[in-house]
Structure prediction request, 277 residues.
Amino acid sequence: MRTELMQYLKSIRLGAYGVTDELPFSNSGIPMYLKNAKKIYVDKDQVSVEDFIPVLNGTISAEVDTVRVYLTTDAKNIPSDYDTVVSLIRAGKDVSTDPVTFFRRECTSATSFENDLMVTEFEFRFTKLI
Amino acid sequence: MTTNYIQSNGATAPVLTLSTSVAGDLVIPTLQDVTINNANDVYSWSQLNESAKLQIATTSTNSISSNVVVEELTFFGDATATAGSADKLGLIGLSTAKTQVDFEITLGTKTISGKGYVTGLAPTTSADSPVWVTPITITVSGEFTIV
Prediction:
């Protein structure tokens, strides 16, 4: 789902924020999303398989595809369109090339502070039966 | 105390197989639960020398009931299978055509079999369920055979 999310984020107006193709790696121990504020970083998919519906001869499993997105903003001077941008990014949970496949689409967002930078981390979770 | 539990998981999970007079068995893969019903009717009477009724078992009403997660080929049948087979008809076909089936259900190392009819189908889903689930009852005609 990283590809679909990237396509969605690049297709919407995010004001002064841009979307980078780079992964949120660290350089000299500092995550790139801290070095490049106002650049949206999309992490690689993290996939887990869980038992979902028990049946007598086994289980019906569900695959959870988790994608994290990072957005860094100057905490001293938050852009006026910050809340709008956050809402638009969060709406990415409904992006799917096949809406029938994923029966559960969720997004949670949380903020933290690194010195004078505010980091908004989004966690998208897409669940489907396998 | 010696125990010999009949386990219902893994290799000893119950397997329910339906067949008709045409070759091509239907194995139901997604059983959530299984109940084997062997309900004897009871005839009771009173005697002057007894303070309680006397009872005796008479003919029984037998059935097998289960809840299954609806799987397309199992429910609607395999179009490539032989015409008239349980595999071709699927559960809904066996029910609507009221076809008598031979059934087998494994219980540990034992097999309980007999003849009956597929009834009680009621596929259900809801907004918070990603799958359809249906009850199924096999109304048994006659007695169980236990091997």
The CA atoms of residues 14 and 22 of chain A lie 18 Å apart. Residues 2-11 of chain A form the longest helix (10 residues).
